[in-house]
Every structure is written in structure tokens, then in C-alpha cells.
């Protein structure tokens, strides 16, 4: 029998007192929950996209089509598995295992709620927590790229290799932006423990403004708005979702890094992608939206909103809102060009993140060292300088577009228009050798083979 008790904030020591069978129950519960959420999210995405496209979605299998994802999941393992002859068999098998394992592991430090009573034992609705839980999450997301890169290399095919290389560059770029966006949360909360970050957002921090004592907003999504926006953008790039799904662009790379995968191995990649969506949504909920705590209007009228197992309702409601955002982006935005995507990550997200972190560092130092008047005057001066620099920064000159008439006039007589150089694909070495074998060698401008 599971009895709900008043939920309190867990501490790091509370996880050391769990008996082994409570830990086993929570472990199995997290695994089953992620599998069920994956099945739900796939069907949820199909129905939402169908609604936006004004067409019927899944509606045949199960009540209103809600068992369609379950049947797909049962069908995939029984399909024929085709392994390329040129594949590295060991790495080909390990790659999807890495992707799925890291996706499941990342969810182990996500808090679902406070401390409750389960079978007579006090335990937190979280599998485990350590002082550096956020770094554990970042490490798991960084390790996931190895599954993608190794799968592209081990397939022994060109297009999966290109997809894997794209993914490695994409993950590195947006992993840096995501990590920098979380630095602001470390600085504000003063801890890297996920449960303690949720606790830090329970109440706002007091500060003084011109002699008045005010309180900062409790959710870091409001207090650290630039970090929140950058994290959401980086999360979409990190999970390879549209409009950032460049590693598996069907129009360019057939299917990307998993082109040569089928049957259960393909299902593992599919499972890992959706679990990563759920993980980054839960991580964003924990860092910026108060975690499992109910929002302010609800707590104002219901004092027991955060007690017992009710915290699960608020946590998963926030996660579903973020998942809807992923689906909305896929249904509305076209895929970006790869150079635009990389330029946006390195030249926009990372510089803005660094400037924001420096600004927060100055605010924390000024809050302790300067008087109220000097502090706010200096902050205002910094904001004015940044605005002036952004206003008068010289814009890059775009190259003049050459009209079609000028291009036709510039081409040699008797020739045909050709595509621009950036669209020309160089011939492969095999094609160059074949041309060299068919073309006779020339000496002094004349062919060596002459008729006798």
C-alpha cells in the first residue's frame, strides 16, 4: 500500500537512507515511465501535427488510434534485420546501445517530487541525487553523440558517415551553448544538485533597490530569461529535432546516421531520440520552471498543491508543454541550411551567453561590494553601452548580386550556363581514374596516338 504524505524538500542525505528494494522500485518505475512516455509522445506528435495540417491522424488502432505507437513498437523488433557486409559488426551493434543507455541514465537525477511515504518508508520521488547532478546530465548528453557518430562510421556507407560527422559538429556547438546557459543557474542557486535547485526556486531571493526591499521572481525562467531562451534553442539542436534535424536530413542524406539500421537497432535509435526530448524537457522544468512545484496561482488558492503525489501532476504538465513546443516547431518551421545553423550556434548563442554570464557575475559582485545607488547606476551604464554598441555596430556588406543578363554576357561564346561553384560536386576518385584511362595522354598539345 502506498500512502501519500506531506511532501518536503529532499536533501542529499535522504537518498543514502533508502532501502535496496525501494531503490529497485524507483529504478523500474523510471524505466517503465520513460517507455510509456515515449509511446505517448510519438502518438501525441502524430495527432498534433495532423491537427495542424488539417488531416486525420492515427485513428484505426485502439481507441481513437492511441495504440498505434504500441503496435509500431511491437512490430519493429520482428522485422528483418539487414546488416551491410562492409559494416564493423562490433561497433555497429554497440552504437545504438550507447544512445539508448545514455538516454535512460540521464533521467536518474531528475526530481519528480518531494519526500513521500512509500510502503511505510520515507523516500524522495527521485532515483538519486549527487552534488554534481547537473554535470551528470551534461555528461550523458555528451556521451549520446558517440552513439550517433559510431553508427555512421560503422555502417560502412557514405551517407551515414556524413550524417554522423554533421551530428558531431552539431552536438559540440550546441552542447557548449547549453552548458553556458546552465552556468547562470549555478551562480544563482549556488548548487549543482537538481533537488536543491528546485528548492532554491521555492521562494525568491530578497534584494534592495534604492532603500526598498524587493524579492526576485521564484522561477529562473523569469529571473534568467536570456539563459532560458538560449537553453530552449540549444535543446532543440541537441536532440536533432526540426528545424535542426540536419544529421538525418532525408532530402540530402537518405536517413542520416541510421540509414543502414533496421529492426530492433533502429527502434533503439528511435527510442533514444524521444527519451532525449523528454529528458531535456524535464531538465528545463527542473532548472527554470520550479521543477515539481505548482505555479503561483494554484498555490495561492490551494495550500496542499505541492503535498504528496500531487507534485507529479505539475511536473508532467510542464514537461508536456515543452514536448508540445518540440512538435509545434516541427510542424511550422522549415529545416535550416547547415551553414546557417552552425553560424547561429557559434556567432549568436555562445557570444550572447558569455556576455550574459559576465553581466550576472558583475551583478553578484556589485550586490555585495557597492552601495545601492552606485550598483544600479553602474548596471544602467553597462546596459546603455551594450545598446550603443549594438546600434552602431557596422553591418556586414553583402556581395552584389549579379543578374542573369550579366552572367550570360560574361560567359565565353558558344558555351552553356553552368551552376555556381558551390553547387558543383567534384567527381569521385574512381570516376577520375576511369576518365584518365579512356583519354589518351598528350605530349606538346598533340595526342601520342597517331594514325600510321
Describe the model.
It is a single chain. With 452 residues, the chain is mainly α. 59% of the residues lie in helices and 4% in strands. The chain has one domain (12-390). It has helices at 20-52, 68-75, 89-106, 133-154, 158-189, 194-200, 220-223, 225-238, 250-253, 263-288, 296-301, 311-332, 338-369, 372-392, 404-410, 429-438, and strands at residues 115-118, 121-124, 206-209, 212-215, 442-443, 446-447. Strands 1-2 form a two-stranded antiparallel ribbon. A hairpin with a 2-residue loop joins strand 5 (442-443) and strand 6. Residues 1-6 and 441-452 have low confidence and may be disordered.
Topology, element by element:
Layout: H1 20-52, H2 68-75, H3 89-106, E1 115-118, E2 121-124, H4 133-154, H5 158-189, H6 194-200, E3 206-209, E4 212-215, H7 220-223, H8 225-238, H9 250-253, H10 263-288, H11 296-301, H12 311-332, H13 338-369, H14 372-392, H15 404-410, H16 429-438, E5 442-443, E6 446-447
Antiparallel strand pairs: 1-2, 3-4, 5-6
Helix pairs in contact: 1-2, 1-10, 1-12, 3-4, 3-10, 4-5, 5-8, 5-13, 8-10, 8-13, 10-12
Amino acid at each position: 500500500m502506498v500512502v501519500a504524505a506531506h511532501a518536503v524538500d529532499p536533501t542529499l542525505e535522504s537518498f543514502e537512507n533508502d532501502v535496496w528494494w525501494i531503490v529497485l522500485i524507483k529504478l523500474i518505475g523510471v524505466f517503465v515511465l520513460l517507455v510509456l512516455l515515449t509511446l505517448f509522445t510519438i502518438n501525441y506528435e502524430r495527432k498534433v501535427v495532423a491537427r495542424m495540417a488539417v488531416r486525420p491522424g492515427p485513428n484505426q488502432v485502439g481507441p481513437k488510434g492511441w495504440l498505434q505507437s504500441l503496435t509500431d513498437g511491437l512490430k519493429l523488433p520482428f522485422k528483418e534485420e539487414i546488416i551491410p557486409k562492409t559494416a564493423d559488426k562490433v561497433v555497429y551493434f554497440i552504437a545504438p546501445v550507447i544512445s539508448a543507455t545514455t538516454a535512460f541514465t540521464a533521467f536518474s537525477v531528475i526530481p519528480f517530487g518531494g519526500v513521500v511515504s512509500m510502503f511505510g518508508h520515507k523516500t524522495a520521488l527521485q532515483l538519486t541525487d549527487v552534488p554534481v547532478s547537473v554535470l551528470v546530465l551534461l555528461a550523458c548528453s555528451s556521451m549520446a553523440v558517440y552513439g550517433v557518430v559510431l553508427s555512421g562510421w560503422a555502417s560502412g556507407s557514405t551517407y551515414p558517415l556524413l550524417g554522423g560527422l554533421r551530428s558531431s559538429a552539431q552536438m559540440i556547438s550546441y552542447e557548449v551553448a547549453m552548458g553556458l546557459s546552465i552556468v547562470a543557474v549555478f551562480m544563482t542557486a549556488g548548487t549543482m544538485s537538481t533537488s536543491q535547485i528546485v528548492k532554491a526556486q521555492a521562494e525568491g531571493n530578497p534584494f534592495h533597490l534604492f532603500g526598498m526591499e524587493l524579492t526576485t521572481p521564484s522561477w529562473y525562467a523569469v529571473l534568467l530569461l536570456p539563459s532560458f531562451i538560449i537553453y530552449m534553442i540549444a535543446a532543440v539542436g541537441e536532440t536533432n529535432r526540426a528545424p535542426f534535424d540536419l544529421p538525418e536530413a532525408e532530402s540530402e542524406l537518405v536517413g542520416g546516421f541510421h540509414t543502414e539500421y533496421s529492426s530492433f537497432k533502429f527502434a533503439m535509435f528511435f527510442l533514444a531520440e524521444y527519451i532525449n526530448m523528454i529528458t531535456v524537457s524535464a531538465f528545463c522544468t527542473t532548472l527554470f520552471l520550479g521543477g515539481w512545484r505548482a505555479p503561483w496561482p494554484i498555490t495561492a488558492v490551494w495550500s496542499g498543491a505541492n503535498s504528496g503525489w500531487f507534485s507529479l501532476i505539475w511536473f508532467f504538465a510542464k514537461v508536456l508543454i515543452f514536448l508540445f513546443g518540440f512538435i509545434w516547431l516541427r510542424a511550422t518551421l522549415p529545416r535550416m541550411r547547415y551553414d546557417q545553423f552552425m553560424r547561429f550556434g557559434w556567432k549568436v548563442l555562445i557570444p550572447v551567453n558569455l556576455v550574459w554570464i559576465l553581466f550576472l557575475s558583475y551583478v553578484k559582485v556589485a550586490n555585495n561590494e557597492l552601495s545601492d545607488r552606485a550598483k544600479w547606476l553602474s548596471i544602467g551604464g553597462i546596459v546603455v553601452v551594450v545598446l550603443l554598441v549594438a546600434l552602431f555596430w557596422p553591418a556586414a556588406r553583402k556581395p552584389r548580386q549579379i543578374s542573369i543578363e550579366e552572367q550570360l554576357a560574361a560567359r565565353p561564346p558558344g558555351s552553356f550556363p553552368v551552376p555556381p561553384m558551390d553547387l558543383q560536386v567534384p567527381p569521385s576518385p574512381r570516376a577520375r581514374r576511369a576518365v584518365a584511362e579512356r583519354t589518351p595522354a598528350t605530349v606538346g598539345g598533340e595526342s601520342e596516338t597517331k594514325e600510321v
